[in-house]
Amino acid sequence: MTHEIAVIPGDGIGKEVTPAAVEVLESLDIDFEFIEAEAGDAVKEETGEALPQETYDLAASADATLFGAAGETAADVILPLREAVDSFVNVRPAKAYPGIDAVRPETDLLFLRENTEGVYSGHEDRLTDDVSTLTRVVTESASERLAEFACDFVADSDKHDSFTIVHKANVMRETDGLFRDTVKSVADEQGIETDEVLMDAFATRVCLDPEQFDVVVCPNLAGDVLSDLAAGLVGGLGLLPSANIGPERALFEPVHGTAPDIAGENVANPAAKIISAAMMLEYLGYEEESEAVNAAVEATLADGPRTPDLGGDASTEDVTAAVIDRL
Amino acid sequence: MTHEIAVIPGDGIGKEVTPAAVEVLESLDIDFEFIEAEAGDAVKEETGEALPQETYDLAASADATLFGAAGETAADVILPLREAVDSFVNVRPAKAYPGIDAVRPETDLLFLRENTEGVYSGHEDRLTDDVSTLTRVVTESASERLAEFACDFVADSDKHDSFTIVHKANVMRETDGLFRDTVKSVADEQGIETDEVLMDAFATRVCLDPEQFDVVVCPNLAGDVLSDLAAGLVGGLGLLPSANIGPERALFEPVHGTAPDIAGENVANPAAKIISAAMMLEYLGYEEESEAVNAAVEATLADGPRTPDLGGDASTEDVTAAVIDRL
Ligand SMILES: CC(C)[C@H](C(=O)O)[C@@H](O)C(=O)O
Ligand SMILES: CC(C)[C@H](C(=O)O)[C@@H](O)C(=O)O
Fold first, then answer.
1. b/e per residue, B206-241, with b = 16+ CB within 10 A?
2. Does the bond joining A305 to the residue before it have cis omega, within 30 degrees of 0?
3. Fold agreement (A1-89+234-326, A102-233)
4. What's the A75 CA to ligand 1 centre distance in angstroms?
5. Which residues approach ligand 2 with their CB closer than 6 A?
6. A281: distance to nearest CA of chain B, Å?
7. How far apart are CA A217 and CA A233, in angstroms?
8. B102-233 is classed CATH 3.40.50.620
9. By percentage, how much of chain A surpasses pLDDT 90?
10. Tens-of-pLDDT digits for all 327 residues of chain B?
11. Which residues form the Isopropylmalate dehydrogenase-like domain (chains A, B) (predicted)?
């Protein structure tokens, strides 16, 4: 069976780390067909559109998409692409890696972020000169779908056995109340243990003691901010992967951006993008291969070669070759 | 001139640290009239109301209010009380104190949080069984008022000369766009330098290097979460004060909660509440006295006596007496 993979490098170092991940995937004994498409600042400059329709359509039909990064146009690219793959959950692991100087090296979290609604609904109005509004939408159905994913995730895992629901239902009583109650009742039905914490209290507590948390289930903006907070605790966005999962397809992206200061110099660290590709392998059912790629990246991070961000002087290509060598 | 001060201890350790702060204020040569009122879980249990009308009215007429903490009913107490004093800005310093084990001891931030709108608007609806909505409100007038406060604050200060605008205008384009543009244009007019950063990026960057930020101006929920994140970096909520400032009156509260595990034992650390009282002194125009109280608290934190949370075995009363002795 051939897997059709959309490859959207985007801007900046996206153009370097995405081919690196493709190279790693090509070295495996799996039948992939890679189809490349454009998105981001550069294509907007040329065509006026940050996300050409054909790129959207490709992501909406491919089995999976590998996305790199986009610059100024990031929101115009990534939000529609998440929609293209009908993604309802954004999976964001945040753990410290060997060789990285971390504020909290013991951090090992996994965020399951609602990926369709909340303040990301896109409904905004300027009612008068003075007053603007945004309609924050929370539905039972989206909360349920997220909760079912979270329960399956925990049930299928050897490593996790419960999750924490993060919300701000003391202020957003109806909307986050619906979120919290729905997620909790799905988990109760499925016999999965949960606890809950307010998003502001989570921000304090995760700094003081990240080990008290494990899997975190939360609304869209809470997931955005708190997973970036966790990224700060593990030493930055540099090595973090993410997966936007939908019912039939999915999109995988590193959490880092385009890094314009080092773009085009063949020194970008491809690790986050390669780990994102490992998440894709797992999603497509290639668990062994996924683990092998993860292990090869970790060994390379630990023993080198290393790119300059980690104090080495290896190139993106050197690191990619070293990962492939270790497979 | 007599200053009428509403004193609302609330629940838990609020009942211990609030009298401690009053005692410190009484030791100064200032004419205060303290009037006590009830709020919180205990009064709700008795009367059915977490915030009795007479408490609201007192806060709405006193020159300033000292609030302690409330338990389960926190949101039902503090949100209306902020309204009672017509507070448009929540001032939240977050700096590490001597003697406190901090994740990032070099943190020294001051949040100016919008205090009336955003997702705190209170407009929520359950449209159907499936769909709930919240109307997030952002106005030019509230953004302007906050910006003017921020500019005056920076202009009047020897320590600060610019501020950072934190927002999520790449997603909340109309609402946070209005916030960002309004704050920036007020600052530009007044010749105050600003920079801006997205709230998710702020969460990462403040962990990696808190010294790159100083004064942070942000919408309501961003201020809630990011100031609590900063609290995590400085070692917890324990020592952080806050001020809810309105045009004619203001309310001062420690950021910590009711600490039910230690309540009633005369071991609660009164420092955050006493520092909040020092913020009140400054607000009322007693700058020297404010500085003296702050210095006395810092000396007590450094040299003792210390309450058990800081490894000592002194009581709330011992620490309060030591602060007064140092004045
Ligand atoms: C670029 C932006 C729209 C996006 C988001 O807010 O989701 C980004 O911050 C992320 O977390 O992937
Ligand atoms: C209790 C709650 C409503 C409140 C808030 O969200 O503002 C608290 O978290 C705070 O920051 O003072």
1. bbbebeebbbbbbbbbbbbbbbbbbbbbbbbbbbbb
2. yes
3. yes
4. 6
5. A 170-171, 200; B 74-75, 78-79, 224
6. 28
7. 18
8. no
9. 94
10. 899 999 999 999 999 999 999 999 999 999 999 999 999 999 999 999 999 999 999 999 999 999 999 999 999 999 999 999 999 999 999 998 877 889 999 999 999 999 999 999 999 999 999 999 999 999 999 999 999 999 999 999 999 999 999 999 999 999 999 999 999 999 999 999 999 999 999 999 999 999 999 999 999 999 999 999 999 999 888 889 999 999 999 999 999 999 999 999 999 999 999 999 999 999 999 999 999 999 999 999 999 999 998 889 999 999 999 999 999
11. 4-323
CATH, range B1-89+234-326: 3.40.718.10
Residue identifier of the C-alpha nearest atom 4 of ligand 1: A75
Interface contact A236, partner B, CB < 8 A: yes
Span A152-193, pLDDT tens digits: 999 999 999 999 999 999 999 999 999 999 999 999 999 999
Q: Which residue type occupies B203?
A: A
* CB B240 within 8 Å of CB B231: yes
The answer to whether A104 contacts B103, with C-beta atoms less than 8 Å apart, is yes
**A133 in contact with B, Cβ within 8 Å:** yes
* Distance from the B34 Cα atom to the nearest Cα atom in chain A, whole angstroms: 30
Taking CA atoms only, the protein residue closest to ligand 1 atom 5 is: A224
Which residues of A carry out catalysis? 120, 168, 200, 224, 228
Whose C-alpha lies nearest to ligand 2, atom 4? B75
CA gap B238, B233 in Å, rounded? 12
How far A157 CA lies from chain B's nearest CA (Å)? 28
Residue identified by tokens 């931030």 is B109
The reply to whether the predicted model has a pTM over 0.85 is yes
Residue spans per domain, chain B: 1-89+234-326, 102-233
Size of interface A-B (CB pairs under 8 A): 157
Q: Which of A73, A133, A173, A224 to mutate to test the interface with B (most CBs of B within 10 A)?
A: A133
Q: Which amino acid residue places its CA nearest to atom 1 of ligand 2?
A: B75
| A153-190 as b/e: b if 16+ CB within 10 A | bbeeeeeeeebbbbbbbbbbbbbbbbbbebbbebbeee
| β-sheet bridge partners, residue B218 | B113
Report CB contact under 8 Å: B124, A178.
Answer: no
Q: In what order do the strands lie in the sheet with A131-139?
A: A124-126, A131-139, B131-139, B124-126
